[in-house]
Design a protein that fits this description.
28% of the residues lie in helices and 25% in strands. By secondary structure, the protein is an alpha+beta fold. It folds into 2 domains: 3-66, no CATH class; 95-389, no CATH class. It has a 9-stranded antiparallel sheet with strand order 8-5-4-3-15-14-13-12-11. Strands 1-2 form a two-stranded antiparallel sheet. Strands 6-7 form a two-stranded antiparallel ribbon.
Length: 416
């Protein structure tokens, strides 16, 4: 008799006996059966469901015994569920693809406002004088850039504190007594304990400045003693009106910038590409450029030589983004530093910029006060906010370069 006939004969014998069915019901009487409902799962004991399940279980027991396995017979061989192959890793997007996607995803709705407002944390990692470890410090900076040439560009700054840069640095810091204040060389100054950088630091009359571990108080100062905003690039002076007039086609934008560089005497191809990268990066967030100009800047950057993809990364606040980078200062031993842009893949907005040491330059290798190491972040900027607003600048009481009423001082000379 073949297998099909055996199964048919077994089925013709009818269902389980009344005794088997009764035992099945008794065994399932105390069980609960999940019933799906629209909003949430609940547990119930419907008699009909119990009877149907009991009959099904009894039938399965009879079927299992008939084919020689399971209850009371030889154990049936078990089969493990087929395992699904692991999904392939996400392919690394090229730098060009990342930048062009950012240009596409960027909100290009025209925006208007009396001020271009940005808030960011800028900082670096630096080795304090006499220390064998590196600290990371930062300063929160708010910029209120006016559209009107009659209003002032205000800057609000606040030190966010300093701490050892890595776990290894923290170990060395503890070994040194866990100091809460350091001295760094004047050339590494970002600010001085809640004050603007003194002129004596700029003129190198002061050789070092203090860096406290604790956060500082906010203070404000006008970016200039003259109203309006002016940005400077080689060969051009930028104003909000100039930025509004920039081309929204990437080829035309690149041609315009190259014209500025030519007028400044910059002819070297590597230097021109580096300036294109820097100016284009500033157009992405820091400068008050229209949205379509920002998109064109992304497209221009996508066409620059040497752009590399770093894939998905996190910025210093833990935000996920896609990073592109370009390496600089090529020499006989290779590039010395890498500049990175971290971009939100959904909105196309710039999240952060970083400059990383690949090989310390000769100056810092020879310096005992501030030697660098590979991987050290010598400059970073984390963008917290960037938008147009009609709100007037919100300024703290502590201000510099102002008169007794808190307004910018009058310039002392016609060209100051």
């Amino acid at each position: 008799m073949d297998e099909v006939s055996m199964v048919a004969e077994l089925l013709d014998e009818g269902g389980p006996s009344p005794e088997v069915t009764a035992k099945g019901r008794d065994g399932l009487a105390g069980l609960t059966v999940p019933v799906a409902v629209r909003r949430h799962a609940r547990w119930t004991k419907p008699a009909l469901a119990a009877g149907l399940v009991a009959a099904s279980v009894a039938g399965l027991m009879t079927w299992n015994a008939a084919i020689g396995g399971g209850y009371g017979g030889e154990a049936a061989p078990t089969r493990s569920a087929p395992t699904r192959p692991a999904p392939p890793p996400e392919p690394l997007m090229s730098a060009r693809t990342i930048l062009l996607a950012a240009a596409e995803n960027l909100d290009k709705t025209p925006s208007k406002g009396a001020y271009w407002y940005t808030r960011q944390i800028v900082g670096d990692q630096v080795r304090p004088i006499g220390a064998d470890y590196v600290i990371e410090r930062g300063t929160e900076i708010q910029n209120w850039i006016p559209v009107s040439p009659k209003e002032y560009h205000w800057i609000v700054m606040r030190e966010t504190g300093a701490k050892p840069a890595t776990s290894a640095d923290q170990t060395a810091w503890r070994r040194a007594g866990s100091p809460d204040r350091w001295q760094v060389t004047a050339s590494d100054a970002l600010g001085v304990s809640g004050k603007p950088i003194p002129v004596d630091v700029i003129t190198e009359k002061i050789k070092s400045v203090p860096v406290p571990a604790a956060a500082g108080e906010p203070f404000a100062m006008p970016a200039s003693l003259r109203p309006g905003w002016t940005g400077f690039v080689p060969g051009a002076k930028l104003t909000p009106a100039v930025l509004r007039g920039l081309p929204t086609d990437q080829a035309d934008l690149k041609s315009r910038i190259l014209g500025w560089l030519s007028s400044a005497g910059i002819k070297d191809a590597d230097q021109r590409n580096e300036r294109l990268f820097n100016i284009g990066s500033n157009l992405l967030a820091a400068d008050p450029a229209p949205p379509k100009v920002r998109a064109a800047a992304y497209q221009m950057l996508a066409g620059l030589p040497g752009m590399r993809s770093l894939g998905t990364v996190t910025d210093r606040l833990g935000r996920t983004g896609r990073a592109v980078a370009v390496r600089r200062d090529d020499g006989p031993d290779g590039p010395r530093r890498e500049e990175r842009l971290i971009i939100d893949p959904v909105t196309g907005r710039l999240l952060a910029t970083e400059e990383i040491v690949l090989r310390p330059d000769d100056v810092h290798v020879a310096s005992r006060s501030a030697p660098q190491r590979p991987g050290q972040v010598v400059r970073f900027s984390v963008m917290l906010d960037a938008r147009w607003t009609d709100e007037a600048p919100v300024l703290p009481k502590k201000r510099y370069n102002v008169d007794k009423n808190g307004n910018p001082k009058k310039p002392e000379c016609a060209r100051c």
